[in-house]
Write a structure and sequence with these properties.
The protein has two helices and four strands. By secondary structure, the chain is mainly α. It has one domain. Strands 1-2 form a two-stranded antiparallel ribbon. Strands 3-4 form a two-stranded antiparallel sheet. The model has no long low-confidence stretch (mean pLDDT about 90). It comes from Duganella radicis. Keywords: Coiled coil, Membrane, Methylation, Transmembrane, Transmembrane helix.
Length: about 160
């Protein structure tokens, strides 16, 4: 045995390498769906947060209009004409110096929107006060927002209905 190479110095056999590759393949086939599920769950959490933020801003605008802090023409709903109004602000009708009321710092982008060149407000579906919940349509104001993503969430509820 003096002339031959000892077993410990010979390295890995082809069988050992194949077993290692098979084990790594099995582990990765289990890990990839979990990563995909985690990414979807994160997007859904962001969607919930963004919808809540937008809806709270719309409600705050309506409340300010009902309190007489925003000038509303006769026949208007009291909701903003666009999402951009929430960021640009409106003049406080009760302020003697013309202060502005702001409702959002920025309009969040729908986390499922893939086109990053469109403005964030265009990534949301908008429902006017005059439209129904079953058939939301844009109109003279923004009463509610919803995701334009056609799929269903992990809870099997379509994203449009969140």
């Amino acid at each position: 045995m003096a002339r031959g190479v000892s077993r410990s110095a010979a390295g890995f056999t082809i069988v050992e390498l194949l077993v290692t590759v098979v084990i790594v393949g099995i582990l990765s086939s289990v890990a990839f769906p979990m990563v995909e599920l985690t990414l979807q769950r994160n997007k859904e959490q962001e969607l919930r947060r963004d919808l809540l933020e937008l809806r709270e801003a719309l409600d705050a605008y309506k409340k300010a209009a009902d309190q007489g802090r925003i000038a509303v023409a006769a026949g208007e709903s009291g909701y903003p004409r666009s999402l951009e109004v929430l960021v640009d602000g409106v003049i406080d009708a009760r302020s003697p110096v013309g202060d502005r009321i702001y409702f959002l710092r920025r309009i969040p982008r729908d986390p499922f929107a893939t086109d990053t060149t469109t403005p964030p407000s265009s990534t949301w579906g908008k429902r006017s006060y005059a439209s129904t919940a079953e058939n939301p349509k844009e109109g003279n104001d923004v009463y509610d927002v919803y995701s334009l993503e056609p799929g269903n969430g992990l809870n099997d509820v379509p994203y449009r209905q969140w």
